[in-house]
Design goal:
- The protein folds into 2 domains: about 70 residues, Alpha-Beta Plaits, CATH 3.30.70; about 30 residues, no CATH class.
- It contains 2 helices and 5 strands, in the order E-H-E-E-H-E-E.
- The protein has a 3-stranded antiparallel sheet, covered by helices on one side. Strands 4-5 form a two-stranded antiparallel sheet.
- The longest helix has 13 residues.
- Bound molecules: zinc ion.
- The site of zinc ion (ZN) has 7 residues, from loops.
Length: about 100
């Protein structure tokens, strides 16, 4: 067994697990049982972890995880030149003045 990734978000860990399983890499999530028991335990120790069943998958798994965690688009907010609305970086169109798409 080998720990390959730790994240604050169980959703992220679960997503990465799905990615690895889809690639044929056996892995499991640990620490999710502690999510309801925060308090006495140092916070980082409670973060969910993704563990590989086989050491030999580490390099492939790391590559897949790096790819998944890399943002697909720059996520900086931008300002619409037409109406001045601030738009979150993941959107390519202004929600305020762009016509709805068919
Ligand atoms: Zn606009």
């Amino acid at each position: 067994m080998r720990k390959i990734h730790t994240a604050e978000s169980l959703i992220e860990i679960a997503h990465l697990r799905n990615v690895l399983v889809a690639a044929g890499i056996a892995c499991q999530i640990r620490n999710d049982r502690l999510m309801g028991a925060l308090g006495e335990i140092p916070f980082v120790d409670c973060w969910p972890e993704l563990w590989l069943e086989n050491e030999r998958d580490a390099l492939t798994a790391k590559g897949l995880i790096d790819t998944e965690l890399r943002p697909a688009v720059p996520s900086a907010d931008w300002t619409c030149p037409s109406c001045g609305e601030t738009i979150e970086g993941q959107f390519s169109d202004c929600w305020h003045c762009s016509p709805p798409r068919d």
